[in-house]
Design a protein that fits this description.
Blueprint lengths: L34 H27 L7 H20 L4 H26 L3 H21 L7 H26 L6 H4 L3 H30 L6 H29 L1
C-alpha cells in the first residue's frame, strides 16, 4: 500500500480531504478508531436502515398505502438535515448516525415499494446488485487488485463533480423551466448509459472510502470517527442503491 497521510481525498461528500486533518490523536489506544469498530457500526446502521425500510412495506401490504407518504417525506427532510449536521460536526456522529439511517430507511423503503408494485422483483434485484458491487469492490481493495492512487482520486472526484452538476442542471431545467429531461434519466439508451456511468463512479467512490478509513485507523483517529466513517459509507451505499434501482426500473420500462 502506498505511503500517504490522512489528508487524502475521496469522492464521498462525508469523507473528504479535511476529514481527519485537524483531529486530536488520543494518547490512549482504547480511544482510537479501529477497523473492526467501524465495521460493527456500519453493520448496525445497515440493520437500522433495513428495519426502518420494512415499515413502508408493511403499510402497503396492509392496504394502508396512504399512510406512507407523510413519513417518507419527513424522513427525506430529516435525513438531509441530519446528514448536514454530521458532515459539519463530526463529533455528533455517534448520536445522529442511527437516526439518519432510520430516516434513509423510510425513504428507501417507500420508493422501493412503489417501484416494486410496478415492477415486481426490482427491489430485491437492486439490493443484490448493490451489495454485490460493494462486496466486489471490498474484495478488490483488500486483495490490492485495484490500488487507490492520487490519479484515481482525481478522476473520481472530477467525475462526481460532473454528476452533481448534471443532477442540479436537470432538476432546475425540469422544475423551473419545464424542460423534458427524460432523455437523461428516463429509459432511453442515453439515460441507461448515464446510469451505468453513475453507478460506476459510485462503486469507485466506495474504494476511496475504504482507503481513507484504513488511513484513519493507521493514524489513530479518535473513536467517534468510527461512527462518522460508517455514516459516510452508508451515504455512498444509499446513493448507489438508488441509482441501481432507477436503472433496473428503466430497463423494465423498456
Amino acid at each position: 500500500m502506498e505511503s500517504k497521510s490522512l489528508i487524502t481525498r475521496t469522492g464521498n461528500p462525508g469523507l473528504n480531504d479535511k476529514t481527519f486533518a485537524s483531529l486530536a490523536r488520543p494518547a490512549d489506544a482504547s480511544e482510537r478508531m479501529t477497523l473492526q469498530g467501524t465495521i460493527n457500526k456500519s453493520f448496525l446502521m445497515l440493520v437500522v436502515l433495513l428495519a426502518a425500510a420494512f415499515w413502508p412495506w408493511s403499510q402497503f401490504a396492509g392496504g394502508n398505502a396512504a399512510a406512507v407518504g407523510a413519513p417518507v417525506l419527513v424522513g427525506a427532510i430529516a435525513g438531509l438535515v441530519l446528514a448536514l449536521i454530521i458532515s459539519f460536526k463530526q463529533t455528533m456522529a455517534p448520536y445522529l448516525a442511527l437516526p439518519y439511517a432510520a430516516c434513509e430507511g423510510l425513504v428507501l423503503g417507500g420508493i422501493s415499494v412503489v417501484l416494486e408494485r410496478k415492477y415486481p422483483g426490482v427491489a430485491i434485484q437492486a439490493v443484490a446488485v448493490s451489495f454485490g458491487v460493494m462486496a466486489a469492490m471490498l474484495l478488490a481493495y483488500t486483495m490490492r487488485l485495484i490500488r487507490v492512487t492520487q490519479r484515481m482520486r482525481s478522476i473520481v472526484i472530477v467525475g462526481l463533480g460532473a454528476i452533481m452538476v448534471l443532477y442540479l442542471v436537470s432538476s432546475v431545467m425540469s422544475y423551473f423551466f419545464h424542460v423534458d429531461t427524460s432523455s437523461l434519466f428516463g429509459s432511453s439508451p442515453l439515460s441507461i448509459g448515464i446510469s451505468l456511468v453513475i453507478i460506476g463512479f459510485a462503486a469507485f467512490s466506495l474504494l476511496l472510502d475504504f482507503d481513507l478509513i484504513e488511513s484513519g485507523v493507521a493514524q489513530g483517529a479518535p473513536r467517534y470517527m468510527e461512527w462518522y466513517c460508517a455514516f459516510a459509507l452508508l451515504v455512498t451505499l444509499v446513493w448507489m442503491y438508488m441509482e441501481v434501482l432507477r436503472l433496473l426500473s428503466n430497463l423494465r420500462q423498456r
